[in-house]
């Protein structure tokens, strides 16, 4: 598929499993019908409720940084369209995804079900608290930007686990970070790139 060659491989994403899955997931099914013709373009698209589906290259980069393994259980904060969850679905054992805008959660859940991404579980709710019932996770991907890394998410990451998260103020560029928790529980932070995500809303204190 041209999207994968020109936007993703050309910019240095190399993980063969990620490239394969991104060739297979029908992105046009995750955007509003009137946007279907633009689904494979090199930018984010509106999905309603003031939210967006991320640019394909960003989805690929974040997925590669997560180093998804077949047996992994992954938590996503910000289901949005469900596209990122569908990409992860083909790479790991289980995906748990939380979306704060209820109608978006319901729509993503329906599309994922229809397309038989059966290992994805969507919940409407506030991702700041993570999903304690299914924790700990091998990997956590956050697709909305909080000002600080939520402590509950750090707590729900397994030793050896990876978190990919954009962090920073609402009206500025944020910093995409890869946080790795070592086998002994220490946190290693890597700054990856400046990015622009919708803000993480909800209750930072909760
Ligand atoms: N991963 C999505 C991109 C979604 S944009 C996709 O593939 O389409 C980010 C999403 O995060 C938005 O839908 C927004 O409503 C949601 N969001 C913002 N704050 C949140 C929070 N506290 N908990 C859960 N979801 C949140």
Automatic annotation (TrEMBL):
Record's catalysed reaction(s): [protein]-L-isoaspartate + S-adenosyl-L-methionine = [protein]-L-isoaspartate alpha-methyl ester + S-adenosyl-L-homocysteine
BP-aspect Gene Ontology terms: methylation
Location (main, coarse): cytoplasm
Keywords for the protein's UniProt record, in alphabetical order: Cytoplasm, Methyltransferase, S-adenosyl-L-methionine, Transferase
Pfam family, one: PCMT
GO molecular function, one term: protein-L-isoaspartate (D-aspartate) O-methyltransferase activity
Top EC class, one word: transferase
Enzyme Commission number(s) from the entry: 2.1.1.77
PROSITE patterns: PCMT (PS01279)
Subcellular location: Cytoplasm
Positions of the catalytic residues: 54
Described purpose of this protein according to its UniProt entry: Catalyzes the methyl esterification of L-isoaspartyl residues in peptides and proteins that result from spontaneous decomposition of normal L-aspartyl and L-asparaginyl residues. It plays a role in the repair and/or degradation of damaged proteins.
The family this protein is said to belong to: Belongs to the methyltransferase superfamily. L-isoaspartyl/D-aspartyl protein methyltransferase family.
HAMAP family in UniProt: PIMT
NCBIfam families for the chain: pimt, PRK00312.1
Official protein name in the record: Protein-L-isoaspartate O-methyltransferase
Protein species of origin: Luteimonas salinilitoris
Gene of this entry: pcm
């Amino acid at each position: 598929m041209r999207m994968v060659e020109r936007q993703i491989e050309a910019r240095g994403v190399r993980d063969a499993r990620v490239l394969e899955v991104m060739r297979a997931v029908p992105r046009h099914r995750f955007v509003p019908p009137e946007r279907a013709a633009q689904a494979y373009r090199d930018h984010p698209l509106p999905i309603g409720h003031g939210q967006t589906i991320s640019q394909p290259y960003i989805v690929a980069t974040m997925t590669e940084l997560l180093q998804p393994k077949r047996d992994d259980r992954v938590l996503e904060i910000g289901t949005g369209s469900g596209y990122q969850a569908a990409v992860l679905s083909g790479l790991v054992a289980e995906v748990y995804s939380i979306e704060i805008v209820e109608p978006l959660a319901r729509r993503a859940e329906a599309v994922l079900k229809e397309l038989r991404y059966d290992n994805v579980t969507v919940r409407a709710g506030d991702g700041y608290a993570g999903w304690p019932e299914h924790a700990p996770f091998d990997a956590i991907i956050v697709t909305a930007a909080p000002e600080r890394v939520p402590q509950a998410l750090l707590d729900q990451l397994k030793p050896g686990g990876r978190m990919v998260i954009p962090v920073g103020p609402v009206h500025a560029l944020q910093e995409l970070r890869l946080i790795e928790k070592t086998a002994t529980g220490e946190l290693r932070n890597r700054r990856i790139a400046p990015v622009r995500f919708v803000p993480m809303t909800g209750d930072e204190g909760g």
